[in-house]
Amino acid sequence: MAKLWAGFTSGETDGTADDFNSSIRFDSRMYAHDIRGSMAHASMLASRGIISEAEAESLISGLRGILADIESGSLAFDPGCEDIHMFVEQVLTERIGDVGKKLHTARSRNDQVALDVRMYLRDEAAEIKALIKELITVIADTAEKYAGAIMPGYTHLQRAQPVTFGHHLSAYAFMLLRDLGRLEDAEKRLNLSPIGCCALAGTTYDTDRFLEASSLGFDGIVMNSIDGVSDRDFCLEYMAAFSVLMMHLSRLSEEVILWSSREFGYITLSDAYTTGSSIMPQKKNPDMAELVRGKTGRVYGDLFALLTALKGLPLAYNKDMQEDKEALFDAIDTVKMCLKVFAPMLAAMEVHTDKMLAAAREGFINATDLADYLTVKGVPFRSAYKTAGQIVARCVKDGKVLETLPLETYREYSDLFEADLYEAVDLGACVQRRISEGGTSVPSVIKQIKYIREMLSK
Asked: Has residue 4 been placed in a domain?
């Protein structure tokens, strides 16, 4: 097939080289964005008198027809075309004649692909943001339901202090809110139009880049034509944000996996989001959470692949930059897939508050409160800390917990212990006394959830 760029060269390349060079097998997913951009370009050319209104109408009508036929399935992508841009232009010219050849006036594939990628990423990021909000809503609803459910809080994966399940889950909602913020910040730098930069130096035609940018929903234009075609930092910024998002999902996945084990028993995942073993009939595997955890590394790899591809490129456009799309598309697809499975998985899980409470009681996680009881009575904290540790060791030896150790045993360690110490080490009271802003008391957790919902509504 003759290439649209044939002229100085014959346009006849080796078949293997054609396959190696071609990108239509993956960039065809940007067909709608490419066509939308071409419609806007045709309108701009007519507005500046570069082509006639009649020619613009013919181009736009032809492009609409191509879009409709692709979406109906009556027009298949031609793998013989080098990329989606050439495919659309070739079909357009076949349908409307030589007028189709005027569409590429005052632009290059370099600024055309930069435009398509920005438009595609903008639309996909909007969908990802909606999915993050859906997940945050599920987390907030679950956190509210279990705002007072006591569980062990952990440091070093060791039981540390009592918290509520609602408090613990809310922490992830705040992480995800920051992920939303990162995507919103990235959009400010993404939403500038590169079209009109042409190959690298701009064009001799009297174009209106601002009009074309505005018609496509951009806030402005990339001001330097070389910059407009030679960088993909906006892709990197989104992919970095996707990587942080996946890191948060992976951490929550790890906890879901632990919580659903018999060793913890805090939750039971729905059968709809688990699998069985091919040989062990008793198994119920948290495969969806494990896959999210595993796919996190895949998104990291996509980011590093593009960073590496770009790191040594001289200005302006180089064919290496074709490598941006597969990495970007894979990161987008992976993030969307993980988010789509995560929200319903959490919404459907069964929470065992009795198991959480039992674990909290067995872990001596109220030992800090026992030390605080003595400090209130004037004992220096370090001395109180040592006494509390000795009492915990006694409990372990006697098979007791702080709530069941007799008062006379407490008084062997300090005469300051009175009957009110049992109120001090009651797990419910320990939680409710955490009244500092952002703490684990139920009013504080409810306040946090209210804030989360307010942020989602903005």
From this structure: no
Structure token digits, residue 197: 């930069």
Domain count, the chain: 3
74 flagged as catalytic:
no
pLDDT tens for each residue of 141-154: 999 999 999 999 99
282-311: average pLDDT: 96
**Catalytic residue, candidates 10, 74, 156, 436:** 156
* CA dist., res. 55 & res. 42, Å (int): 8
CATH number (domain holding residue 317)? 1.20.200.10
Mean pLDDT to the nearest integer, 111-138? 98
Strand partners, 34: none
Taking residues 96-121, report their average pLDDT. 97
Q: Which residue range is the domain that position 48 belongs to?
A: 16-102
**Which pLDDT value is given to residue 135?**
98
Active site residue 168: no
Give the CATH number of the domain where residue 34 resides.
1.10.275.10
* CA torsion, ordered 32, 34, 36, 38, to nearest 10 deg: -150
For the chain, what percent of residues have pLDDT higher than 90? 91
Q: Is the pLDDT of residue 71 over 70?
A: yes
DSSP tag of 314: P
Tokens 């770009």 correspond to what residue?
Answer: 310
Q: Quote the pLDDT of residue 5.
A: 44
The DSSP string of 60-120 is HHHHHHHHHHHHHTSS---TTSSSHHHHHHHHHHHHHGGGGGGTTTT--HHHHHHHHHHHH
Cα separation, 41 vs 245, whole angstroms: 36
The average confidence (pLDDT) of the chain is 95
Where a domain ends, among 340, 358, 376?
358
Choose the weakest-confidence range: 28-42, 117-131, 420-434.
420-434
pTM for the whole thing? 0.93
Calculate the CA dihedral of residues 229, 232, 237, 238 and round it to 10 degrees. 100
Determine the pLDDT at residue 282. Answer: 82
The domain that holds 385 is classified in CATH as 1.10.40.30
C-beta of residue 204 within 8 angstroms of C-beta of residue 217: no
Short-list 146, 51, 157, CA closest to 96: 51
